[in-house]
Amino acid sequence: MLAQTRVIFFFSLAIYLSLGTLIISSLFISSSIAKPVVTMPSFRILSTENGLSQNTVNDMLIDKEGLLWIATDAGLNRFDGNQNKQYVGQDNEFADDGIYTLFEDQRGDLWISTYSSGIYRINRQTGKSERLINVPYKEQPSW
Questions:
Q1: Is the model more confident about 3 or about 65?
Q2: I want to staple 133 with a disulfide (CB 3.0 to 4.6 A). Which of 8, 61, 108, 119 is the partner?
Q3: Is 16 helix (H, G, I), strand (E, B) or coil?
Q4: How far apart are CA 51 and CA 88, in angstroms?
Q5: Percent of the chain at pLDDT above 70?
Q6: Tens of pLDDT along 1-26?
Q7: Are the C-beta atoms of residues 50 and 61 closer than 8 Å to each other?
Q8: Of all helices (H) and strands (E), which one includes residue 3?
């Protein structure tokens, strides 16, 4: 009885290992056959020379639509893969303001933290921005 149990155990182990090897082998074979999504990648340098609001980049975010949002010390930028556009907001709230952090929520709205005026949410359906937290600008100490 004990010998029969051992034979069944080793037979089961051999089948399990064979299946594992087969699965791993098929993963390697399928990954070597897979074609790249982008066949000729191109890279670009974004700077103030081609429309970036400032060369100091604090944060970047690729949204659900594939747009690249860039937070700089002098404003918010949106790059669509071809053209860079400074995004100033509906009331110029992002013009010449330091943008530090970008976040996209589940609805696709963009959350923006600024240096001098607080935290905003841009409703991507309407394009309207709303200040949710007001942080008054703090003066630099006079030394």
A1: 65
A2: 119
A3: helix
A4: 13
A5: 66
A6: 555 555 454 455 455 545 455 455 55
A7: no
A8: helix 2-33
Q: What share of the chain is helix, strand, coil (3-state, %, to 5)?
A: 25, 30, 45
Q: Distances from the Cα of 20 to the Cαs of 2, 12, 30, 118, 121, in angstroms? A: 27, 12, 15, 54, 49
Give the pLDDT score at 36.
Answer: 65
Cα 73 versus chain centre, distance: 19
- Integer CA distances (angstroms), 69 to 18, 27, 44, in order: 48, 35, 15
Cβ atoms < 10 Å from Cβ of 113: 19
Nearest to 79 by CA among 67, 89, 90, 71: 67
Domain regions of the chain by residue span: 1-32, 54-134
What are the tokens at 89?
């907001």
Q: With CA atoms as reference, report the closest residue to 60 among 47, 69, 50.
A: 69
pTM of this structure: 0.66
pLDDT in tens, 26-62: 555 555 566 666 677 776 788 888 889 999 999 999 9
